[in-house]
Amino acid sequence: MRRKANERELVTDPEVMRLSPNRSIAVIGGGPAGLIAAELLARAGARVTVYDQMASLGRKFLMAGRGGLNLTHSEDLKQFLTRYGDSDPLLRAAVEAYPPAALRAWSDSLGQPTFIGSSGRVFPTVLKTSPLLRTWLLRLGNLGVTFKLRHRWEGWDEEGSLRFTTAGQEAFAEPDATVLALGGASWPKLGSDAHWVDLLNAEDIAIKPLRAANCGFAAPWSEVFRGFEGKPLKGTGISFGGRSVRGEAMITREGIEGGAIYALSSPIREAIERHGDTTITIDLMPDVNAAKLTERLSKSRGKQSLSNFLRKTTHLSQVALALLREAALAKGLTLASMKTDDLTGLIKAVPVRLTGVQPMATAISTAGGVSFSELDARFMLKRYPGIFIAGEMLDWDAPTGGYLLQASFATGVAAARGAIAWLQPP
After folding, report:
1. Staple 191 to which of 54, 89, 148, 327, CB 3.0 to 4.6 Å?
2. Does some domain include residue 2?
3. Which domain holds residue 245?
4. How confident is the model at residue 66 (pLDDT cuts 50, 70, 90)?
């Protein structure tokens, strides 16, 4: 790795600066962070080469759009920034500098206008990733970006050259600057296998341990309840640690996952790591207050079975009613033996004990990564000038809802602007 270089003054507006065409920049990682960095660098006039170990680019990006590409969110930027929790100010500054409006304008420039869904999430009108990615790669090619696929980065040699393995052979590159955007450790079969952790650890770069984020959790379901695998709990309110989230959860054979769970996954994960298990509560009827529900449940059920009475009175789904029975069973009770007030309390706050975290490889994203303390304001490693870091490699965490992609794009832009500034003549 190059360990000596002259520091440059940070140019106030590097995006409008032009680089000498003999400047070469390597971008390692072909996801959103790497590709948006490549675009800005190429627009500045640099010779850009994107390296990726997979046979095609943007594989996880394509996966993210499988159910509709949620690019970003439409909420007020001040509220938007709170979604990153206590993340480093450098991350928030990157999102402020490249906010959701900028990402939407970029999508529009690719012929993919966006719309705001009912939840405030922002999607391309075609919903899928593939049309946007195809047009984007065509644009990058027209800008002169070179793609070298099936190139696995192996760090640096003794002279500081980038090392790659490809087709069973070694390849080397000596760019003027490098942007590392290799992703986290979720869905490694799509390319994000975090092999970079050992490479950077060898250079004494501080890395926070990678952990599953936006993930599901294990729950000790009975064998009967496991039969509801794949069934959704719709319109619930899930609470943990003083926070409540409205949304959907999905029963899995081993536990529970889904959007509302993902939104709370960070504090849930931390609680399980500290104590071995923890308990969430699920309000199965968040739109009906306890008094109104008690009034409904107090009516005579006549000759109806309790199951039929509850189904007609509460309009709960079969899986929701099964979850009630599961919770009562865990207390050594049956629903029929419970008093009306207790039944109301159970429906409004079903306790679900969680005993483990979904494996990192199958999580939507990962937390942890290169510590922001290693970076300067240009997203460049302080001790290794010319090396810039972007995307999920960095130590930040965010829920689903557009926040993950927004930060990936924003940090890619920040790293590119930083590289442009650093490469300007002194």
Report:
1. 54
2. no
3. 217-357
4. confident
